[in-house]
TrEMBL record:
Organism: Ornithinibacillus halotolerans
Coiled-coil ranges from the UniProt annotation: 163-190
Lineage of source species: Bacteria, Bacillati, Bacillota, Bacilli, Bacillales
Keywords: Coiled coil, Metal-binding, Signal, Transport
Protein's recorded name: Manganese transporter
Subcellular locations according to the entry: Cell envelope
PANTHER family: HIGH-AFFINITY ZINC UPTAKE SYSTEM PROTEIN ZNUA-RELATED (PTHR42953), METAL-BINDING PROTEIN HI_0362-RELATED (PTHR42953:SF1)
GO CC annotations, alphabetized: cell envelope
Amino acid sequence: MRKSIKYWVVVLISLGLLLLAACSEKESSTESTNEKIKIITTIAQIAEPLSVIGGDYVEVTSLMGPSVDPHLYNATHGDITKIDQSEIVFYNGLNLEANMVDIFNEMSASKPVLAIGETLSGDLLLEDETGAIDPHIWFDLDLWKLALESAVRELQDYAPEHKDYFEENMEDYFSKIDDLKEEAKKLTEIPANNRYLVTAHDAFGYFGNMHELEVIGLQGLSTDGEIGVSDIQDTISIIKEYNVPAVFIESSINDSSINAVIEGAKDEGVDVSLGGELYSDAMGEAGTEEGTYLGMYRHNVETIYNALMGGVE
């Protein structure tokens, strides 16, 4: 039986509607991708947690990768372009990224720019003997939650339609930080005479405070100074006095200074081992466990525990 003209008209209209729906769905999918909030951070300790908390609605890029020292970092032309094209900028502050502050101040006139460390109450922050503030706040798990929360609040203000989503993800992520805090309590098992954490620079003050370790850094809070012979000798004297079993290199700092301590101690008849590599100012490679904030922190806990408990009978 021949189909009527009316039948074919209905068929063509139906096909047209299906085609329009498919195009609309494709456009919607493209718009969804394009609607991701473009976030730039300086360090991966900010970027990686925010990528987890922001989930489907953010695109987070860290300017500084593995082994990069933020104390000495200078922005490239490409970095400035990335910052300019971003929607929100988060950095640590507290003079960690000292060479980039002017850029952030300029960019803040056109977009949200937040130094998350500078949202914390001053009485929570550590200072060195000169009064300089210690910027390495990610090593205090409780402080880092507060700092990350300030970034999430900024994100919620920017995209209030996703406020509940960000809140739920933040609470879930913070519960994982709390679990890690419980795991790290094993560090209190280290005997008192072994509780000396010797590293290349003074990045672990907050870590030491949280886990009751005496921290000794060859350099001060920043790595922009020189390490002198007296710094190495003073460290060797401490190792001798307290019989420190191990010292540690850092992934973002040349290991020559720590190796000089080990060799100098050996020349004086003191056997001190290399306890391993710690992540201080930079995290590990993306895609690895150490490339996550939780994994980096857990690596440091395990490395320190194993090294400082090694001589315990």
